[in-house]
Each structure stands twice: as structure tokens, then as C-alpha cells.
Amino acid sequence: MKLVNVVLVALLVSGVAHAQKKSGLLSQVSGQGYGSAGCGFGSIVMGSDGNQVLAATTNGTSGSQTFGISTGTLNCQQDGIFKSGREVPAFIEVNKLALANDAARGQGETLAGLANLMGCNSSAFAPVMKKNYNKIFVETNMQPAAIEANINAVVAQNNVCGA
Amino acid sequence: MLLSLLPLLFVHSWSASPIPDSSLAAKVLQISQAKKLSEDRQWKKLLHFERDTFFVTESQIDSPNFFLSANGKKDPHAELEATIQAFFQEPSADVNEHAQCKFPARYQWLKDHLKNESIAWKDLKCDRYLSFAKGMQGESVSLVFSSYYLNNPSSAFGHTFLRVNKAAGQDGQRHELLDYGLNYAAEADTNNAFLYGFKGLFGLFPGQFRAIPYYYKVREYNNAESRDLWEYELDIKPRAVSMLVAHVWELGPAQIDYWYLTENCSYHMLSILEAADPKVDILAHLDHYVIPADTIRVLWTKTSLIKSYKYRPSIRQVYFERGKILNKEEQQEFAELVHQIRTQDEIIYGKSFQDRTPESQAKILDAFIDFIDFQYSKEVQEAGREAQLKMRVLGKRSEISVEPQIIRIDPAPEERPHLAHPSGRWGVGYLHDTADKDLALLTHRFALHDRLDPAWGYPTYSQITFFDLGFSYGSSYNNPDEKRFELENFAAFELVSASPWSSLIPDHSWRFKLGIERTRNENFLPTHEGVMKLGGGWTFDYGTFDITAQVQGEVHYGPSLADNNFWVGAGPLWEVHYKVNAWWLWQGGLYYRRDSAWNKQDYFRSQIETQYSFTKSFGVRASYRNERFLEETSLQLFNYY
InterPro entries of this UniProt entry (chain B) (predicted)? Predict the structure, then answer.
């Protein structure tokens, strides 16, 4: 009987421990409870039939709400791979903060990734982003589409992305 | 009723087996039977046939749509037959629903095994699968381990997922952020902590495979949770990579029951690798329990699969590094900026800042930017006050045409997870106490690490104990002629997070324990008590040693110790931890406690312990403890496995 008790306590504790991990950051960052399916990345990637779908999940840490992904921007095919031409807004959405940091510093992995995605020459792209930082990131709560539009305008003006 | 169904059945079977291909199917079936293909190891791996705890071999996939034969979960022969039949059926209106399109890895496997036979394969053009495979486009595979966050030891088991590595971009560079990750996780449907633990441990959550952009995982772990990522590039050839992608596609709609301790993320990362590449053989070498951190160690020590590894530091580490390279004056400027963001609505750069060289200004601002991201991640995410200030700081930074310093962090060898000591531990030992008792000790810990274990692979400042059981054997206190086997200590869960306080990262340290302890009263009558302890305070790091000062509170529940079964106590605690090297560690502590159940005497405990480890598998630990009613000395031999 003692053993049964011991096992029960262990179960309870492991549950608590794991659930702490589940809720910690998500509620902290997004202010929402865990498991609020229906918003964010997962639901957008998830096809209507839930078939062969590849959505975002983690080992129970935070959900996509952490990154504030809004509906409509992550235009994936129903199979989890981005529709051609839709990678750029999704990339900007998730990487918004790191991208702003890189742009201000004029260097970084996130900036290089975006340049590649947009088919731009990274070494020409980076200094232009830095120089025009204030024209691109004009507000704190910008929608990714607005950031993308500003980047496109700057890039076109400076002619750094080929066509 | 039956009669009315007959025509339907007839129509169905007639349309499903068109004449032109039945001969082809029959031929393939015949050859594969002659070759005994259904006994091929990779075929069984593609179907996820494994032997379970009860020595039953069947598929671990729990959803019927993964099988084409009604008996497929139990019978790989029947499943192969049904699969071959399905491959040569006429496609319906939606070609994507055809078996070739739903099971591209099985199809590829079959073609590979029959490539010397003259078979006129009729490959279908599966547009959904093809666009998926094109999007993944991998050349190699990395196993990514997301490790612990110092102040969140419950993340200590870690998480593993695979990354499919794309070829270099147009600029000739690899862009890891643009790769895709393959993840397996439980689809949890509850908030309730108890339910979560229960369902997780007993396989009551469905587990699912997902493909996720790698940048998403990087932002999640590195930035949002401040967890380091370790990326292990595996020796998997491009052909096997496409097989892996095809197999994950097959698993997309499948469901597998998620078992937190056995069939978990790490287990299935290896199971899909084994299915994709016959040369991978590791599941059979793992223990019954699969802890992500152990998986990395086993891969590193027991296989030659890991080609190279790379460390991707968390935002916390990067910030800490940027802080460290500031000189004294720059640190003052930095502190001034930190003060401003806490107290005012505008960042004003004073004259002393403006007078600095651009290089120095850039250094300070770069550290400050990372500080804001680390310290105010929530506010920045939510575009709050700090986000607005940060945007202006970035504006200022963009005006300084100095490149940021590249931060390279190379963790010390003992911090690398693949070099970790094994996480399970058992011990035998001897204990002598005041009542002149000599007891034999027997202990077993399921996982993971305490601060005297060999300092390899786990965070230096943390203890994470999961299911630690200690028993003693010797003559009973009540009746010296009687020998008894007794539970001495049980820690279901014990955490010590001694994150050092620093001006750059002013962390608190804390501890928690939930378990059962055997305590002695003034008459040496031991009794078992359920205990919960919680402590908080600070740790100060002085290089080889650190000092912790905390206040700890305890709740006890025990049947016969005091008048009241339930009592509480609280008091200060000091601890010194001294690291001679990774193999030899010391720890000493003083603890005072005032108890609600002990009005005669306050509780005072002093303790010193040391462990010397000969290898990562063996160590001896000596301990001396002096507390109310009791003084004891013990010596234990530990084996890590």
C-alpha cells in the first residue's frame, strides 16, 4: 500500500512539474491560457481536413501566440509548406524583433535569411536596411504587411534586389 | 438488407481493380513474396513495428488510416500485400488520395527493392506531396537538442527534434533559419496539471508529427525561453533525407499515443530516422526510459552518426557575453541606460555617452538592446512602453556605422550535453548514526543531476532530481534484535536552482522538494512524513565556489511524530558549493528552522558532503550530518547508468 502511495505522489508531482513547463512562458508572454486552439500559427497551417498537416507545436512549451502571429499573414498550403511568395511575410512576422535588431546593427543571421528569401544580395541589402531603419520600422506595433511594404519600397529605391 | 448491398459491393470491387494493372500488381506481389520483402527490417520500421513492454510486436501507430490492410497493425505481411494492391489501383478523381501519394516512402522502398526486376512502374504525379517535398528540400539532417533554462529546471529533460538542412542559398551561404524542423509532440488537451501528468505518463495524449520553420523554433527556444540549442549534424545521406521527408509525410495524418517517459519526442525522432535509413540502429540500445538528454549522449558515445555539432546560444547568453566585453566606463554608461529605461519615458544620451567613440557607443547600445529583449521580452512582444523605447534605441544604433561585434560562445567541455554523465543513478553505502546504528544504504534515482554528481553535461548551478528513492537495512530502533528494510528518503521531485546573482542578470536562487522523509524524534522513534519544502534567496558566484543564502519553509505531514499530524517550520539556510574540478566537488550547509510542532527545541542542521568521481559512471560520496536528535556519517558508492 505504501508503494501505491509513493507512486501516486510521484505521478502528481511529475504532472505538476510538467504542467509548469507547459504554461510558463505562454501565459507570461501572451497573457492567454494554454491550449487556446484556434488562433495563431497552428490553426492557420492546419488544413480544414486536418490531413497530412504540419502545424507548429512544441514539446509543450509555448504556442504560436508567443509570436503574435495574426491570421491571414501566414498563408500556408494545407500541408504546412508556405505557398510560394508567402514565405516573406511569415518570416517577417515571426522574426520581427530579431529583424529590427539586425537592421539597426546592419548585420545578422535574420537579415541575411530575409535577403536570401527575397532574392537579394545580402551584402548590399544589409547596409540599405540599416540606413533606412527609421523608414522601415516606424511604429512599435506594426503589422508584418506594413513592414514588408516599407522594406519593398526601400529596396526598390535602392535597387538592391535585382528585379 | 444484405441483398440490397450486394450490387454496391460488386460495383466497388469492380471499379477498384481495373484489368490493366492487376497483372502488374500480381507480378510485384509474387516477386515480393519470393523475396520475403515483408520481413525486411526497413519495411517493419516504416510500419513502426516494435516490441512493447509486454513482448508483443506490433505497430506503434494507433490510427487505422495508417494501414491499408484491416490487420495491418499486427501483420506486416498482410499490410505489404494490401499496399502493393493499392499502389496499382486506378487513381480516383483526386490523385492525392491514392496510396502512392499517401505512402511515398513505402512506394520508394518497394521500388528500391525491386529495381533489378523489369517492372513497368506507373508513377503518379502527387502534387500535394511533391510541393511538400520541394519545400523541405533537404541535403542533410541535424538532431537539435533544446537544453535547460537555468531558472526553469523543469525544462531539464530537454527536447529534441530534427532539422532538415537545405542546400546553400543563391549567395552561396547556408541559412539555417530557412530550414524546416520535424517535430513530434503531444497534442495536449488539458490545462489541469494532474491530468496532464497522468495522461502524459500513461500515453493518453495523441502525439503528432509536424513540420515547422526552423526560425520559429529558434525564436521560441533561444529568444522567448532563453534555452540554448545544440545542433548535431548527422551522417545521413541525401537519399535517406528524402526518404525521411517522405516518411514524415506518411505520418502526417497518423496518430501515436504519446508516452512522456518512453515513446516521446526523442524516441520518435530516432524511430523515423531508423525508418528512413537502414544503417541507423539505436532504439534497441536505449533504456526503457528515453530521456532526451540521454539520447544525445548515447548517439555520441555509442554510434558514429554525429558528424559535427554547433551551439546556438540563447538571448540570455548572448546578452551576458555582450555585457562582459564592456569595460568599466562602458559598464557605467550601460547602467545609466538601464536606469533610464526603468524610470523614465525617454532615453537621453548624456554628454559622456556622446563623447565616446562610435565603437564604444555601438558596444554599449548592442548590450543594451539585448538587455531589453532579455529582461522585457513580454513587454517588447506586446509592443508596450519598453518596446517604444527600444525602437528609439534601435534608431540611434542605426545611425552609428559600426558593425556589431560577433559574439562567439564556446561552452566549456563539461557543459556540452553530449558529454553528460548518464542520468540514472544507483548507490550502495554504509551509514553510522548517534544511536550507534550501522545501516546498509541502497539508493536509486531515476534522473537527472545533483550538484555533487560529476559536473558533465548538466547546468552547474542546478539540481534536478526526479524519483529518488533511498532505503536502509539494519536493526530496528524499536527492537534491536529485528532487522528491517526501511524507506529513508523519497524525492518525487527536487529542484535547486542556484542561479548566481550578478548586476547583469540579477537572478534569484530557489529550491523545491516534494517527497517523503524518515525523521527521528527525541526518543529515536523514526517515522515517515510527507514533506514539501520551498526556499528562495540569492547565490553569489566567486569562480570555483559559490555561496547561497535563502529562507526555506517546510510543511510536514506524518502520523505519529507530534500531537498534530501536520506541522510547519521555516528558517534561514546557507550553503557553500566548492568545485575543485569537474570530478571532485564539495558542499557544506547550515540550516536553522523554527517549528510549529517543537516548542522545546529549535531545529539546527549542519552538513558537509563531498563526492569524488573516478569516471562519469562511478563516484564515491562521503557525508556528515548533524541535526536535532541525530548525528550521522555515511559513505556511498554511486553508479551512473
Answer: DUF7840, DUF7843, Lnb_N
> Domain B421-640 falls in which CATH fold?
Porin (2.40.160)
Instruction: Give the 3-state secondary structure percentages of chain B, helix then strand then coil, rounded to 5.
Output: 35, 35, 35
CA distance B332 to B572: 34
pLDDT of residue B589: 96
Contact B511, B550 (CB under 8 A): yes
Return the amino acid letter for A100.
A
* B:517-546 residues touching chain A, CB 8 A cutoff: 530
8-state DSSP, B151: T
Residue range B274-307, pLDDT digits in tens: 999 999 998 888 877 788 888 899 999 989 999 9
Considering CB atoms only, which of A28, A131, A141 is closest to B383? A141
Smallest Cβ distance to B369: which of A22, A34, A101?
Answer: A101
pTM: 0.85
Interface confidence, given as ipTM, is 0.85
Residue of chain B nearest A125, judged by CA positions = B171
Question: CB-side exposure of B305: number of CA atoms within 13 Å?
Answer: 26
SS3 of residue B93 by DSSP? coil
**pLDDT tens for residues B520-544?**
766 667 788 899 999 999 999 998 9
pLDDT over 90 at B358, yes or no = yes
- The domain locations on chain B are 22-124, 135-312, 318-399, 421-640
